[in-house]
User: Which sequence fits this backbone?
């Protein structure tokens, strides 16, 4: 377009020169009218030339702007291509440890706990036992991870590092859809309220005596849980603990059933549950033994003990549980019966354990509950923010009877009190005292099986 304008300007300039030539040559011979006409034509040519020059300038400026715009666009494209692909957003929260959440349901959280215990066990002087007196231990040191995946899937892996060995506690894979949860791997069967509640959240140094005496532990299996409204149903098929799977003769198989009603009346949370358990011990088990420590774990001394009971074939048991949480107050009652089934016409002993507990927060806090178990508290007035933390006092009566059908393992009645201080979330200090009355104890004191034992213990705990 530029060349065309130049040609046009040249044409007009030539025309003007031709027109001027005769005008100068004949200036003396033309009339005044002719001169005026020629002058008008010259003025018109000058205006047209000026218009053409203006159009030429506009075209050149437009070309420059277009060139700059093209260059800027090319620069933007190059910068975009050089920029790395934008990553999906990631959220990092805090629940005692970082919890990372990504798009689509992905999450990852490290988890663990450290529980250190120390205390004394005092028995009659006539009993000489290395487990008496002062002792301390790392009760639990656990590390692991847990998280979720798209599609409702989840996982949890946790190991205990105490005792110099690495022992898997939880190793499981889950699937959730609405109120349904399926779990595969090593996890807790549905033995009862206190056993299913985390050891981070119990009211005393140790759970009620029957939980250890009856061998409650995690096992490898598959289970289903379904919750609807205020009802919860749980069922599972289990074999041995994962640490025992490679041992010869550990081929037990059993199932567990549990049903829970948890209606809430205003601010009052209630809990009512029942459970049933059956376990075939396998062909090579042969015998079972039931015994218990004196309300603490840092001693190996057992004052009640059935000894080995031979010809054991299976265990059948059932439990009942009830609880209430009303503001700062809570109360729990739980009991469990276990029958050992033996071969032939041999007697089948039934052993019993149960406990009743009550607790009260001195601070403005409450015990938390959900999914048929107790949860960790949330400190309402933590230290570091002008508060004194959460303070709680608890009392418990714990009974365990290991005598029946000719087997005399003894009975243990524990009268216990505890004081718990949570200065902040995830940190806890606990003091407990237990007065234990024994009858028909497995360890004799001056020839007698009836006597008293005192156990005092403290714990420091951090969990995340």
Assistant:
């Amino acid at each position: 377009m530029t060349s065309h304008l130049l040609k046009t300007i040249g044409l007009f300039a030539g025309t003007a020169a031709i027109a001027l030539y005769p005008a100068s040559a004949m200036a003396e011979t033309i009339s005044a009218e002719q001169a005026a006409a020629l002058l008008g034509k010259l003025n018109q040519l000058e205006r047209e030339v000026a218009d053409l020059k203006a159009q030429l300038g506009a075209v050149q400026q437009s070309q420059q702007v277009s060139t700059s715009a093209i260059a800027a666009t090319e620069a933007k494209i190059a910068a975009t291509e050089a920029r790395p692909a934008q990553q999906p957003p990631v959220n990092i929260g805090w629940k005692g440890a970082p919890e990372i959440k990504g798009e689509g349901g992905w999450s990852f959280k490290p988890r663990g706990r450290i529980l250190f215990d120390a205390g004394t066990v005092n028995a009659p002087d006539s009993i000489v036992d290395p487990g008496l007196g002062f002792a301390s231990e790392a009760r639990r040191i656990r590390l692991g991870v847990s998280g979720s995946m798209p599609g409702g899937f989840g996982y949890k892996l946790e190991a205990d590092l105490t005792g110099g060995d690495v022992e898997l506690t939880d190793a499981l894979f889950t699937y959730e859809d609405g109120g349904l949860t399926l779990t595969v791997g090593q996890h807790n069967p549905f033995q009862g309220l206190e056993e299913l509640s985390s050891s981070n959240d119990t009211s005393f140094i140790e759970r009620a005596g029957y939980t250890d005496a009856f061998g409650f532990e995690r096992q490898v299996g598959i289970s289903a849980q379904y919750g609807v409204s205020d009802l919860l149903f749980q069922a599972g098929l289990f074999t041995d603990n994962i640490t025992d799977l490679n041992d010869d003769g550990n081929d037990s198989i059993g199932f567990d059933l549990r049903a829970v009603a948890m209606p809430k009346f205003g601010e009052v949370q209630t809990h009512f549950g029942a459970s049933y358990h059956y376990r075939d011990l396998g062909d090579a088990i042969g015998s079972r033994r039931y015994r218990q420590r004196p309300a603490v774990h840092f001693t190996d001394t057992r004052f009640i003990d059935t000894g080995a009971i031979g010809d054991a074939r299976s265990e059948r048991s059932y439990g009942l549980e009830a609880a209430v949480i009303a503001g700062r107050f809570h109360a729990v009652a739980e009991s469990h019966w276990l029958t050992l089934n033996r071969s032939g016409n041999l007697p089948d002993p039934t052993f019993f354990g149960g406990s009743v507990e009550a607790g009260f927060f001195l601070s403005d806090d409450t015990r938390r509950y959900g999914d048929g178990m107790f949860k960790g508290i949330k400190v309402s007035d933590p230290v570091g923010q002008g508060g004194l933390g959460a303070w709680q006092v608890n009392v418990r009566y714990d009974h365990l009877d290991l005598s029946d059908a000719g087997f005399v393992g003894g009975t243990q009645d524990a009268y216990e009190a505890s004081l718990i201080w949570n200065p902040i979330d995830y940190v806890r200090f606990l003091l407990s005292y237990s007065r234990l009355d024994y009858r028909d104890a497995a360890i004799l004191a001056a020839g007698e099986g009836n006597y008293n034992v005192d156990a005092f213990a403290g714990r420091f705990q951090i969990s995340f």
Observations:
- The chain has two domains: 2-82, 112-142+175-463.
- DSSP finds four helices and 24 strands in the chain.
